Amino acid sequence: MTQPSTVNPCPRCGQPGEMKKSGSNRFWVQCSKFGKDGNCKAIATICPNKAEAVAAWNKMR
């Protein structure tokens, strides 16, 4: 399995992206200022592994 690439900064506000996990096969990346931590609403789709979650986040514009 390939290692996930680097998580790009948030495409909306420039803050760091954060990897999140729920269960054994639900991964996504969201802005570190998402929700209660701030006011950015950037979040990528849920994916079955870290590499796909990073790829989905990095494709966001």
From TrEMBL:
Question: What is the protein name for this chain?
Answer: Endogenous inhibitor of DNA gyrase (YacG/DUF329 family)
The lineage's top-level taxon is: Bacteria
Pfam families the record matches: Lar_restr_allev (PF14354)
What organism does this protein naturally occur in?
Answer: Chitinivorax tropicus
